[in-house]
Amino acid sequence: MADEIRVRIAPSPTGFLHIGTARTALFNWLFARHNSGKFILRIEDTDLERSEKRFEDDILNGLKWLGLEWDEFYKQSDRIPIYSKYIQKLLEQGKAFHCYHTEEELEKEGREQLAKKGLQRHVCEYKNKDSSAPAHQGIIRLAVDENSKRKIKFNDTVRGDIEFEEKLLGDFSIAKDVETPLYNLAVVVDDYEMDISHVIRGEDHIANTPKQILLMEALGFEMPQFVHLPLILGEDRSKLSKRHGATSMIEYRKLGYLPEALMNFLGLLGFTPPDGKEILSASELIEAFDLVKVHKSGAIFDIKKLDWVNGEYIKKLSEAELVDKLSEFANSDNKDYIFKIMPLARERIKKLSDISEFSYFFQNPDYDKELLRWKSRSDEEVKKSLEEVEKIIEKLGTDEQGKLRNELDELGKKLEDRGLVYWPLRVALSGQKASPDPVDMAEILGKEKTLERVRVAKELVLA
Ligand code: GLU
After folding, report:
1. Whole-model pTM?
2. 282-302, pLDDT tens digit by residue?
3. Can you point out the beta strands (E) in 84-125?
């Protein structure tokens, strides 16, 4: 179909799916879905030394997990004969040539250019020599006019008109040999063969664009529309890197962010929907998405915002869904028990792994006896209070919250210090300074465990 929207995400499997790649994939996907077009996944694995199967698997799994199903799938390593055909054509037409400089020579040239503060480019002396010369082992370069006065121009949907001076490019490399294309050549051939209408990618690829345009011209291909997305920045406004925290999708997944929440969050990194809404479902994002409105400036990755968005999605989960997810993160099959903890957790956690803050529901807490002490009260007084609490729980159990609270409050009055009752009980049950209400915890733990922990605390306080 002539005017069909066809876009692609083209990750290189040289690392785990990066959060920036996921955002680029999402913008491509949203644009395709908004326009009833096609979203293509292309694995760019021509660099065989750095590409690994485990990274490819991670990229595929990560995109699927996020909900970005692709319509077509390609792998560059399966397509070598296609690239060879075009490389050969360029060689035959004299538009490309073999370069026989050694790496040492090229490095030396680079160093000298740097020292002289001259142009950083390689104008190759083999360009105009008979290419039937040696054994055709040298790398292959595109012949670029070093004296050109022309500016290579293109219009970018996000950044507007962009131009580069042709003569600055030098005779850049396009393949190691006829069977081994390099990045720029493979991208240009694939975007043409796959009928890509819009190349939507990270801003870090802008400098490759003039090279790709020259290749398109040499091969007689039409130019796609270019769309360079703003980079994702850390809070200090430098490019997002490990230093700022997790950068791969898998890490966010392991921390217990929900895919719907991540999609929502990533969709707003560099794009603001017209009504300024912050919580949008996939279909609302598709509906609202507009490439023309993508911001020019870098998008700041604000983890607090992600936590907030994720918390909102956690609140929206059904009870059964939340119990399932929490039991996975708490490593427990006891769903009835998790069901009891769930209401307390739902209000407090930002991500599923925060369930670890409730570890005392799953194992006896470990704490320092100092923590049991209440203000200026003596250890004896704390022990006494715990003994009274023990008696009350032995009598009433933990299921009837109202009654239990009343008796504990009465005890507080008798001791003329509510804190002397509730503080040691909180610590005995949770081992923490900040926890949910002690009576709520006691109900979840049940009579037996509650008593056991109160007794442990009683022993500990005078130990
Ligand atoms: N393979 C490139 C990368 O991993 C992307 C190429 C492109 O989008 O043109 O960054």
Report:
1. 0.91
2. 999 999 999 999 999 999 999
3. 96-99
